[in-house]
Amino acid sequence: MSNYQDSSIYNSPNTIGKITLLLIAINVGLFAIQVLSGVNITDPTTLDALRWGADYAPLTFLEEPYRLFSSMFFHFGILHLLMNMWALYIFGDVAEKTFGKFYFLGLYLLAGLMGSLLSGYLDIRNSYEFLQHFDQKLIPHVSAGASGAVMGLGGALTLLSLFPPTPNQRFVLDKRSLLTVLAINLAFGFLASGINNAAHIGGMLMGAVMALAWYVMQRMKAPIAVNMIIVILGIAVTYATYLYCQHLVGPITPLWQEAVSQMRAQLQF
């Protein structure tokens, strides 16, 4: 990615966007607090993850929906944190300066939420299948991390790279590089174990849709206030997706209640 209006923008040590910096600070600060409270810096336990807001679909959809949000700010060790924060620094700075602070923050959070929701949806479908035949691979897992939101930024920038820049767009986006990075991340998610690729895909799709809406409005020279309407529509779509997942949970509620009870008994949570 290269700047075509002011190539000196990266020469200043204080050029990182304020919202990007704030998000990094929140993630790093929370991680530091967790470590100081006794969480293992390289390999947190499942109990620690749940105590700090990680997502576990049965618990999330039956009792504590806030985990769809809080799970975006917990990481499974310092390596997980550093990888996501590096990606947030690279993607976030460009995305914030492209979309503006308000739209950037809305896109980031909605992408993270949609990543959590798609992950939960797959856990719901897997639980339906589990009722038909026992398979440990179908049991819901605890998940967390900012990768869904970060992939949303990557998906947004990649989508923009496919179209000619708008007159006010500050960056020319390298389509080949962005597509390569997304492809590698998705392939790694499918091939490696322990990676919640559903969250990556959900975040990426939401980011791409939000970027497309923004791009169309830019081309139409719509007033900035329209961006707020797009974010509100994004919130509505996200909430509707949550309600749909809640509707699907009904038939598997006894199974998930038992799963939550067993986890609480096992972990004394």
CATH superfamily: Rhomboid-like
CATH class: Mainly Alpha
Q: Can you tell me the CATH architecture?
A: Up-down Bundle
Distance between the termini: 46 Å
Report strand %.
under 5%
Protein name: Peptidase S54 rhomboid domain-containing protein
Family: Belongs to the peptidase S54 family.
Transmembrane segments: 21-41, 68-90, 102-122, 142-165, 177-195, 201-217, 224-244
Pfam families: Rhomboid
Fold and architecture overview:
The chain is mostly helical and 269 residues long. The chain has a single domain (14-265), classed as Up-down Bundle (Rhomboid-like fold), CATH 1.20.1540.10. 68% of the residues lie in helices and 1% in strands. The chain contains eleven helices and two strands; from the N terminus they run βαααααααβαααα. The chain has helices at residues 18-36, 46-51, 57-62, 67-70, 78-99, 101-132, 147-161, 175-191, 197-219, 225-249, 253-267; strands at residues 2-3, 171-172. The chain has a two-stranded antiparallel ribbon. α1 packs antiparallel against α5 (78-99), α5 crosses α6 and α7 (147-161) runs parallel beside α9. The longest helix is centred in the middle third of the chain and has 32 residues, at 101-132. The chain is globular. The N and C termini lie far apart (46 Å).
